[in-house]
Backbone:
């Protein structure tokens, strides 16, 4: 049988969700040819729209989007606190900053002075729906020249030292690299023979839109009970957690009768469901890929890690994968970095994934319907009411405490660069929108200017002072916004040489 073949691309991406689309934008921004292969024939479904598609974007994600001029269009579609579609936790007098297993903490409790290398960014939190986020990313990808083929999911592939051949939708595609961004049941991961292991589910979660005969029987908000947990948003949006070991997830159709039975069990009421409008299930299975790269195949997003959606960290984790991988894969393709630069993708991102999986498991432990979990919940509520407790949880949930180990002792190296407000009226993030790295020199040092000339088009040299420089004199910032080197009174040449060697693949001394 003849299989139609398309022209070759630098990168083939499986999956047109937010992670695949964001990665495609990153690669295309760097000049790589990209095609995205998506199984679903249409870009949106009701589950991606409000209320079930609501997602909170972390500070690290907001910074990444701002560094690519994608924050503004997403903000324009964001859900405001006053919107009828806003979640119950958004409709409060105090401004919620996040939660742990449903236990909230608030912005007025967070002590940002504990993060000395952070500046106030353009916004502190954004909530939007998946459909809107995907629409913004797809629009940007298409404007950059990315080809998106829908109804064309990856079936299998072969790879060699020279590239990858993908078979999808009855067609054959050629590329140098294949990236699986095709979800927790990733066909790319399975075809590559990459292991996927972790902890099995303890519960089946339900997200349902329904009509009730007696809506007053349920109290709005999130509630732990003797049988599980439920969240009610009037008039008919409900989340349920039934600790059945995940037995009901994707096993049989979800019926009105079944939802009513589970709702009565969890809420300990005789509430009646008159109509089931929309329903889906999910679990707390926490699995991670044994490796993020195998030959010319890479994984990102849910294809590399899955966990409970509680806390909404899955989207943020996946977008972080894309931001980290994009510039490294592009530099490899262009030949401006050695192939082993890609090894740093797994080295940096796999520990981040493991941390989020453990964070998810800890929340599940707190949710179990047992006296010990309820006792622990009471202690956690007290802890989250303290300033130090709220600040710790904010640092974890927002991604503020995230740091890559780049082998440098400077406290800013490996962290997200502060969005410095420069004296010419620009901000650092605006200088990162081209996808290049930035050598930011507050003092206009001649030796740094000379070095920047040797880095050709990989780094933009910006010699402008900042209104608040946080005691720093210069920074080398990777294309993903991560600080690779920082100069202050405690820095030295060896730190700079080591960091640039790890970034560019050859030592480049940066004088202090």
Residues:
């Amino acid at each position: 049988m003849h299989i139609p073949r398309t022209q070759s691309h630098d990168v083939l991406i499986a999956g047109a969700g937010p992670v695949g689309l964001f990665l495609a934008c990153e690669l295309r921004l760097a000049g790589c040819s990209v095609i995205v292969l998506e199984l679903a024939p249409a870009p949106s479904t009701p589950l991606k729209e409000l209320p079930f598609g609501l997602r909170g974007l972390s500070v690290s994600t907001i910074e990444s989007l701002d560094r690519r001029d994608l924050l503004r269009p997403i903000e324009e579609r964001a859900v405001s606190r006053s919107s009828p579609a806003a979640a119950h936790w958004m409709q409060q007098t105090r401004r919620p900053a996040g939660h742990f297993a449903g236990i909230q903490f608030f912005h007025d409790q967070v002590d940002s002075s504990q993060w000395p290398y952070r500046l106030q960014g353009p916004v502190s939190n954004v909530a939007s729906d998946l459909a809107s986020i995907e629409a913004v990313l797809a629009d940007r990808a298409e404007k950059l020249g990315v080809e998106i083929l829908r109804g064309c999911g990856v079936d299998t592939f072969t790879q060699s030292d020279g590239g990858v051949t993908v078979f999808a939708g009855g067609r054959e595609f050629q590329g140098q690299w294949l990236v699986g961004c095709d979800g927790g049941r990733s066909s790319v991961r399975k075809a590559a023979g990459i292991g996927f292991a972790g902890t099995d589910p303890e519960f089946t979660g339900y997200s349902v839109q329904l009509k009730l005969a007696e809506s007053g029987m349920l109290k709005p908000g999130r509630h732990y009970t003797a049988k599980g947990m439920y969240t009610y948003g009037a008039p008919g949006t409900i989340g349920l957690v039934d600790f059945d070991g995940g037995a009901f997830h994707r096993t049989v159709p979800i019926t009105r009768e079944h939802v009513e039975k589970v709702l009565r069990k969890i809420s300990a009421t005789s509430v009646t469901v008159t109509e089931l409008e929309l329903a889906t299930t999910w679990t707390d299975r926490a699995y991670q890929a044994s490796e993020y790269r195998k030959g010319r195949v890479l994984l990102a997003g849910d294809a590399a890690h899955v966990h409970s959606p509680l806390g909404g960290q899955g989207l943020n984790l996946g977008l972080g994968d894309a931001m980290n991988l994009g510039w490294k894969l592009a530099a490899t393709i262009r030949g401006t970095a050695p192939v082993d630069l890609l090894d740093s993708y797994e080295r940096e991102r796999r520990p981040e994934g493991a941390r989020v999986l453990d964070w998810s498991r800890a929340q599940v432990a707190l949710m179990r319907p047992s006296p010990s979990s309820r006792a622990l919940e009471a202690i956690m509520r007290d802890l989250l009411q303290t300033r130090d407790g709220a600040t710790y949880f904010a640092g974890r949930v927002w991604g503020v405490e995230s740091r890559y180990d780049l082998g440098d002792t400077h406290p800013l190296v490996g962290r997200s660069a502060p969005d410095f407000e420069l004296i010419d009226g620009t901000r650092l993030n605006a200088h990162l929108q081209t996808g290049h790295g930035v050598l930011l020199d507050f003092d206009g040092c001649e030796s740094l200017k000379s070095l920047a000339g040797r880095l050709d088009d990989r780094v933009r040299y910006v010699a402008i002072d900042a209104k608040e420089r946080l005691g720093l004199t210069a920074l080398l910032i990777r294309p993903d916004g991560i600080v690779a080197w920082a100069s202050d009174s405690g820095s030295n040449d060896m730190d700079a040489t080591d960091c640039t060697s790890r970034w560019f693949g050859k030592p480049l001394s940066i004088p202090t």
The chain has a mean pLDDT of 90.
